[in-house]
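The aim of this short unit is practical: by the end, you should be able to scan a pair of folded records and say something sensible about each. We start with the first protein, listed as its amino acid sequence and then its C-alpha cells.
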Amino acid sequence: MKLEDIQTMWEQDCQIDRTELGEESLKISQLHSKYFKLFSAERLSYKKMEKEFKELARIKFEYYNGILSQEELKSYGWDPFSLKVLKSDLHIYLDSDRDIADARLKMDFQKEKIDLVENIIKSLNSRGYQIKSAIDWEKFKIGA
C-alpha cells in the first residue's frame, strides 16, 4: 500500500460525526483493528526489506572486495570491479552504490508508512476521550 493511500484512508476515517457521537464511539475498536492489521503488515514488509538489504550489502561488500566469482558476477549482470579498495575506503563505495541507495530509500519510505500508521493508532487510542469531551461540551451547551 502506498503512503498516499494510507493518508487518504485516514483522512476519511478521522472524521467524527458530531451528530452521532455514540456511533463514533463504537467505531473506535473497528478502526483500531483496521489500522493495527495495516501496521502489522507494513512492519513485516519492513523486516523483509531489512533482510534483503543486509543480503545486498554483503554481496556488494564481496563485489567491491573482489571476492565474487565470475559465475556470481554473471548471475547479477555485473562486470568485475577493477579497483583495489582499502577497507577504510569501502564505506565510500557502499554508501554511493546505486542499488544500496535505492534499497535504503525504499526502506525509508516503508519506515515512514509504519510511523504514520503508528501515529494513527495513537490517535485512535485517545479518540474516546475526544468523543467524551464533545459529549460533555454538548451537555454544557444545553445546560445539563
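Turning to the second protein, read its sequence before its C-alpha cells, just as you did above.
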Amino acid sequence: MAYAPAPVETVVHLIRHGKVENPTNVRYGHAPGFHLSELGRAQAKAAGVRLRELGQPLAALVTSPLERAVETAEIIGGELAMAITKADERVTEAQNQLAGLHRYAFLYPWQWWRLYNPIKPSWGEPFADVAARMRAAIDELRAHHAGAAVAVVSHQAPIWIMREAVEHPGRIPWLGAVRCTQASVTTLRFDGERYLGHTYWAPPAL
C-alpha cells in the first residue's frame, strides 16, 4: 500500500511593523524620517517574544528597507539573538499618490479624481504588482529554506495582498480584503508549492 509522503512544511511569518511616531497624521508611504514610537517598539518586542515562544528558530529574517520596518526587524532580531539577513525592496510598502498628505486626504473633493478605480487601485501601485513582487520574494525564501521558518517584516498592504494571493490564486486582491494590525504576525504555511493555510496573531493592547 502506497503512502503519501509527509509534508515538508515551510513557514513564512509576515510581520507588520510597529506603530510609527506620526503626530501630524500623514500618510508616510516611502518618505524617510518616520521611526517607531515607544508603543511601536514595545509592539515589535512582543512580536519577537511571540516568535521565540513558537520554538522554531528562523532561518532568515528579511525586512523592507523602510526605517520603521528595519527598526521592527532589529528589535525582533534582538529577541531571537539573530541579525537581519537582508533588506529586500520587493517587500516594501505599496506606492501611493496620497503619500505625504493627511491620512484622510482622500475625503477632500479635489482628490476624488484619483479614486475612480478602487480595484486597480487608481491612486497607487496596482495590487496585482504588489502581489507579484511579494510572491517573488517569498518564493525565493521558500526555495532557499525549504522545511524551515523565515520571517519577513513588511507593511499592511503588502501583507494582506500576499495573503489574498495565496488563498485565492488568480483573483486580484482588492481594497476590502483582510487587514493586519501593527506588529501582527500572519503565518503562511506551505508544502512545496502547495499552500496549507495560515494563522494570525496580534500583540495584546500595550
